[in-house]
Amino acid sequence: MASWNLIAGLSLCVVLFLCLGIHAEAESSR
What we know:
By secondary structure, the protein is mainly α.
């Protein structure tokens, strides 16, 4: 179960990081 928690946490962090990067790019391109 611990490994599942780790994978879920990592994937969530990656998704958040991607969203932040896309948002930053959209803001800078304006």
